[in-house]
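Aim 2, interim progress: modelling of the pyridoxal-5'-phosphate-bound target.
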Amino acid sequence: MSTIAEKLKKIRADIADTCLQAGRSEKSIKVVVVTKTAGIEAIQEVIRQGFVDLGENRVQHLKQVAEEVAAFLQENQDDPAIPEKVNWHMIGHLQRNKVKQTLQLCRMVQSVDTLRLAEELNTHSHKLGLHTNILLQINCSGEPQKYGAPVGAAIHLAEQFATMPNLRLVGLMTMAPLTMDKNRVRASFARAREVYEEIRGERIGGAKFKHLSMGMSQDFQIAIEEGATMLRIGSAIFN
Ligand SMILES: *Cc1c(COP(=O)(O)O)cnc(C)c1O
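Predicted structure of the complex, ligand included:
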């Protein structure tokens, strides 16, 4: 077995264990494999292991890797072990002048944190005839971070995003503070969960609002315990 396959197996086992402890179903967790540091061969191995949700944080790199992956899928279209397509997630800060290019590459943008960005996504989705899934990124870390809307603005932004006809607000995304302090990481995930439940309670986004994207290589177990439905994992697989 390749090291990538072994690492994926370990992550799957860790997710299963944590779910069991937390009384959750493994099926309630989707793993987005973050490929930003990975070479194409490693990514091919990930796809062979059955992972079809892939994430990138830079548009330029996303374009390059998405093309390489598309070529790989094309070459292996007769192989039943290889899926027909993968789903790309944009997970990093998105400049408005890169919106059009991003929409041509992925159907899910996890890092929407301002009204202006949402408006730009809506406008270009309309022009391209698309309905784009978005997550509202919020900053729950309790410290000024560069990206992510403040918690206090979340409900109002969610309401505005949900009215845009070519966007579908399908959940929230957050990043834990950069710290080794597990209590602070947990507190920030718990805060995100509260905001998520509040938005669901108000039925903003309707039944489609069902994703809580939080947890990375260092903290995904805590995120699962605090209610994550989507993990974004890179270095634990590729480094
Ligand atoms: C890089 C990145 C990840 C993955 O982080 P790892 O620590 O490598 O698992 C998750 N989310 C975002 C937004 C990232 O930029």
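Strands lie at 30-34, 53-56, 87-90, 108-112, 132-139, 149-150, 167-174, 211-213, 230-233. The two ends are 17 Å apart (CA to CA).
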